[in-house]
């Protein structure tokens, strides 16, 4: 942000997208031929281009829409397509111009449509340019330019406000698309909800201490209400943002392999399909994947945990204060390797499951990654709470083997000697609390710093290195001419910043969402250990929301807007964590009910049946409460669903008025009264009916019209009442 | 069915409905005035009437539609209304006549619409005649006439077939309405599914005996698959029968008390509302209701159970073989009284909850009645399995108190003496199995007989009594003249049968559904005790399906068709029973794992932790499997949902073709290519742009059209590759 006053930040030169084209190797002809094709493809969909030098073997192609009028046609078509597929309940106005005036085109929609124009396959009317894929490997990135003026205002506004309003979220949706807006909406909802557990967490910490059943129940209840509330909120927001059911028109994956082509039973078009039964079979592979992940990561974490326990609580030799970091180092080295392997395995597995759409692929991948994340995030605390604390004194004596790791440092065998009898060893009862504090405070702060400060330093560092390199090159006389040398002076500062933006990372909202969901997990699973956790989260999330905005503005390329109607599979993760929380919370509350000390390594102190009964009762209370909360929430009208119903009603009404107006000309049944009455007049007809051959006609001809029915009926009634009266008298 | 050859059964005289008007008291003027009003009201909505004598102070009013043409208008309006409210995805044809030809009017729709015409309030275009309510207390019943020819064929067809097809169900829907069709569809699905557990139940019984964990798992799995399958089947059927979302246009309750009138946010009409938050508060009263029911019924059942145990296993005096029936007698006497009280309490509670629609009221009432049914059906077995068997020898010694009940019969104190030590007493391990057999075989058969044979005998008996009475009356000379005396001879047999049908009960499908769901409960909860239960159910249900058809044809008035898109709250009961079954099954399998003998009254033989762990693991396996089954089923395309999607697509498409065709005139973006290319021609414009005051214009004017971009870009690429090559050479 150092160059804020730079004139290059004041205008985007009407550029819609910048394409960074990188040529590798030295084959000039190939590089220029591909470049030529790229520009022709862009021109073929009505995009004007300008080219400038880029850094590191690349040129930058600036793209803008050649004709706004033609773009409007594209926008209108996209909106009609949305409606046909049920994304919007109401059809756009009949007249394209009127439709655009009624619903103005906002930036995110514009950028999304242009991006589709660039990347969609040619048969769908796009240029078919897929960055980093297949033929277009040399297209390194396609990105819109930041609106620095706006960004500056945005950050300033947010940093001086406590709460974000729905209008703030609407603004994000209009500039960055509903997918990113959903992340901010979720985090904002979560943040506002956090005020409650922060209050009763603080009160509980002050009055009740840790492991309070009252706090545990309130926290579980809060988790349920928040999760269920968010589900409704999602529907509301997706209706508000016109992106409901958007997943039905997701972009197809190029790699999707179809087995056969069939006629779509809905639209009648030919579609390529892959049988879902076959996919279900392939999805079963997730089971071994989950087991492998759990055992591999579990083994690593358990080993490091054991080494740590050994060093901190058994080892008594020199360098102890340094050696305790050994397991952390092992983890830091091995964990990324392992998770890397598992992630690529997850990728290949998802590839194998052969999803048709990008959305489907992402969802399936996220589900798999959640398993890995779950283990790395929560297993350490789970081990402490449910293995170390209850069984510590039984297990620690068997930790001799880990003596190997520190043997080189030990001066004698005694320093490595584990206690022979459980009695000699006492567990460290504070370990659980410390660990929870570490994960809920320290790790969160560290994360935040890593997210914001590290990329900043990295950028600064790289810039410095580059400067030094070119200085050295100049000194040695063999300088590659700086790309900016040939820039027209009035464009220099603009091009300088575009080159900087081209080097930035792309923003992936999934990572930020994952962070929030994992944080929610700590609250749901372990906050009973240390009720101040929600307070820490509350503070952290206030900063997080702003930091993420800042990150998008400064550290990342401007994201390409895309649409969403949910936070996706993370929603399932939320539900799962809430549920799992009911089990861990119950278990922790029971295990540490003796003044927070826990069974202290003596499993014989635990009444297994009482533990299981606690879990059983707590979990079922949880399920009943969740059912009640769901029921209650479903009864409340939500503005989004109402809007949807109204729009659906209006379109039917409109169709009705336009096409079914004949209905008003249809006579109501009450008009038939005249026919009923008329019958009495048609004496002749009646006579003939009585002589009719159809006994049905004779039956209906006996009484002519309602008046005769009344006459005869009254006579029947009177006679019957008389008969009863006679009978009554007789029996007296 | 004795009068099958009677000519009165061959025609319904074109009658649509028969109204039985009963006059009480001796006020002739009042009785005839109300009668007059009734006929006028009917005529006012275009219904023709004939009146005839009825039995026991009543007249029968025969009603038929005066004009078929007017009725068609009514039908068309009803279909359009369905579509406006989203019940049908596609609007009917624009032309009413064409619409009726495309979708012919079937009997159930006709009768439903005429019934609405009679009963709907006047402001909605009906005659406002509500039988047995308010002003129309004297209208005893409104019923259509049986089609005896058809019924005969129906029963004959069903009784010679093993399986029912979807077409059979369609036929029911067309004649009796989708609500009753849903009951038959459910029972048929359940029956077909039962083949599986019958097979592995029989195998398990043969090979593995009772309490087999393998059978338990298979049965639970079956319960999950069936419940989840049925949920999908419901959607399919409701789409097939055009009744999806029909609950949105339910008829309003007259007793609904509104708090305020607000404008409907969807339709813009004024609607009366009762705040749902207030209703939620009132619904909380269900909690004390459930507790009261449980404790009152529980106490009665537990007492009778204890008395039975005391008499059969402690008492040793005379008349023992008769006295064992004492608890059954107490139950038979007290249970109906108690359930009657609870049912009326449930009614009043539901009344208080103030539902807007009849459907809402029924749902809420059914939920409450399920609680009562659950306790009366399953508590006896639950007591045996989880109280008597494990704790028997601890409890039986305390049963002295029940000695009081048989003290009058005992000859000495010793006969009433309970064993002093638990060792002296051995429980009867066969009691559980016997009880399950009783509930799954004996009780089912008894029920079936009660349903079919008792009403038959009752009818025959009443007829005989009546004959005898009138014979006596004739002898004593004071005969009330028989109503049939004045019948025209050719109508005599027809009127005779109508008078018979008027005396029949009305059919309530809820009772039959409840029976099936409770049967499913025995299978889910206890069939592991006696794996032959599903075999018994399979046989029973084959008969049940036919018996119910027979019941509707012979024992009951022809039901008034109504629509439904679900079996309603019974679906929730199914899910609940499946879940609860996972808990009881696990507990039973563990408790009786020692060769089926159970803990034999010695609770010290039970490892509580092992019991709880079994339940915990089994229940969670159940939940995971259910989740997987749900996921898998949701992936499979169902014909119903597809049909719905297609119709929704078609209507949008039609609207699109009719109204949005302008879109084809909008030029695609690729047309803008000419604009991009043209730029290169407009040299002058470019020149002037370069001199323009807007730097954005100057930026875009530097390269004229794609060709120049390609030229310049290629030059940039070549230069960069050259530079690298130079650099490379230098460093060699």
Automatic annotation (TrEMBL), chains A, B:
Q: Name one Pfam family in it.
A: Anoctamin
Q: Cite the entry's keywords alphabetically.
A: Membrane, Transmembrane, Transmembrane helix
Q: Which residues lie within the region annotated Disordered? A: 682-702
Q: Name one GO cellular component term.
A: cortical endoplasmic reticulum
Q: May I ask which residue range the UniProt record assigns to the signal sequence? A: none
Subcellular location per UniProt equals: Membrane
Q: Where do transmembrane segments lie in this chain?
A: 180-208, 214-230, 287-311, 323-349, 370-391, 436-457, 520-539, 576-597, 609-629
Name where it mostly resides.
membrane
Instruction: Give yes or no: UniProt keyword Transmembrane helix.
Output: yes
Identify the residues that the record assigns to the Anoctamin transmembrane domain, covering every copy.
Answer: 172-647
Entry-linked InterPro entries: Anoctamin, Anoctamin_N_fung, Anoctamin_TM
Domain Anoctamin alpha-beta plait residues, every copy? 14-139
Classify the source by domain of life.
Eukaryota
Q: What's this protein's name?
A: DUF590-domain-containing protein
- The protein's organism comes out as Patellaria atrata CBS 101060
């Amino acid at each position: 942000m150092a160059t804020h006053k730079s004139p290059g930040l004041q205008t985007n030169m009407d550029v819609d997208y910048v394409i960074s084209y990188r040529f590798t190797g030295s084959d000039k002809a190939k590089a220029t031929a591909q470049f030529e094709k790229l520009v022709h493809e862009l021109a073929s969909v009505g995009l004007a281009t300008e080219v400038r030098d880029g850094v590191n073997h690349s040129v930058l192609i600036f793209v803008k829409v050649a004709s706004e009028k033609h773009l409007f046609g594209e926008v209108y078509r996209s909106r009609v397509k949305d409606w046909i597929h049920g994304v919007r309940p109401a059809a756009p106005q009949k007249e394209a111009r009127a439709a655009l005036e009624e619903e103005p085109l906002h930036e995110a929609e514009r950028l999304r449509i242009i991006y589709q124009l660039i990347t969609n396959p040619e048969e769908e009317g796009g240029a078919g340019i897929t960055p980093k894929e297949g033929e277009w490997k040399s297209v390194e990135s396609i990105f819109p330019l930041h609106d620095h003026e706006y960004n500056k205002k945005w950050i300033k506004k947010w940093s001086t406000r406590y709460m974000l309003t729905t209008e703030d979220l609407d603004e994000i949706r209009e500039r960055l698309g509903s997918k990113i807006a959903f992340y901010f909406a979720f985090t904002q909802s979560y943040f506002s909800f956090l005020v409650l557990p922060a209050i009763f967490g603080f009160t509980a910490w002050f009055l009740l201490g840790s492991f309070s059943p009252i706090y545990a129940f309130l926290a579980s209840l809060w988790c349920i209400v928040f999760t269920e509330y968010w589900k409704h909120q999602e529907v509301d927001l997706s209706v508000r943002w016109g992106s409901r059911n958007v997943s039905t028109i997701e972009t197809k994956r190029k790699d999707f392999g179809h087995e056969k082509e069939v006629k779509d039973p809905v639209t009648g078009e030919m579609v390529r399909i892959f049988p879902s039964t076959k996919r279900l079979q392939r999805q079963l592979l997730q089971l071994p994947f989950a087991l492998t992940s759990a055992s591999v990561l579990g083994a690593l974490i358990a080993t490091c945990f054991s080494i740590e326990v050994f060093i901190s609580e058994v080892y008594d030799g020199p360098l102890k204060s340094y050696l305790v970091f050994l397991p952390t180092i092992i983890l830091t080295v091995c964990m990324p390797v392992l998770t890397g392997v598992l992630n690529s395995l997850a990728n290949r597995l998802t590839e194998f499951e052969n999803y048709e759409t990008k959305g489907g692929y992402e969802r399936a991948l996220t589900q798999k990654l959640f398993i890995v994340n779950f283990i790395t995030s929560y297993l350490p605390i789970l081990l402490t709470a449910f293995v170390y604390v209850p069984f510590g004194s039984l297990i620690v004596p068997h930790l001799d083997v880990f003596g190997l790791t520190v043997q080189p440092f030990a001066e004698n065998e005694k320093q490595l000697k584990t206690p022979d009898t459980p009695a000699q060893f006492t567990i460290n009862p504070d370990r659980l609390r410390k660990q929870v504090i570490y994960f809920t405070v320290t790790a969160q702060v560290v994360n935040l710093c890593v997210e914001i400060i590290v990329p900043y330093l990295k950028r600064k560092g790289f810039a410095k290195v580059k400067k030094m390199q070119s200085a050295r090159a100049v000194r040695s006389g063999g300088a590659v001419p700086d790309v900016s040398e040939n820039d027209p002076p009035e464009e220099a500062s603009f091009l300088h910043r575009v080159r900087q933006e081209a080097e930035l990372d792309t923003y992936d909202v999934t990572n930020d969402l994952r962070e929030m969901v994992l944080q929610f997990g700590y609250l749901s699973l372990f906050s009973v250990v240390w009720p101040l956790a929600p307070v820490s989260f509350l503070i952290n999330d206030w900063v997080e929301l702003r930091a993420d905005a800042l990150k998008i503005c400064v550290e990342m390329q401007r994201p390409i807007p895309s649409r969403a109607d949910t936070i996706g599979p993370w929603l399932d993760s939320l539900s799962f964590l809430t549920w799992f929380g009911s089990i861990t919370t119950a278990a922790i509350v029971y295990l540490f009910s003796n003044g927070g000390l826990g069974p202290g390594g003596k499993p014989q102190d635990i009444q297994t049946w009482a533990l299981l009964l606690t879990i059983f009762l707590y979990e079922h209370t949880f399920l009943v409460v969740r059912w009640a909360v769901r029921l209650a929430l479903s009864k409340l009208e939500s503005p989004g669903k109402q809007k949807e119903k109204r729009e659906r009603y209006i379109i039917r009404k409109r169709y009705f008025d336009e096409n079914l107006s004949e209905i008003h000309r249809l006579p109501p049944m009450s008009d038939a009264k005249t026919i009923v009455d008329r019958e009495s007049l048609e004496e002749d007809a009646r006579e003939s009916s009585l002589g009719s051959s159809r006994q049905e006609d004779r039956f209906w001809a006996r009484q002519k019209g309602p008046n005769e029915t009344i006459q005869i009926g009254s006579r029947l009634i009177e006679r019957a009442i008389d008969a009863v009266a006679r009978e009554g008298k007789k029996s007296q």
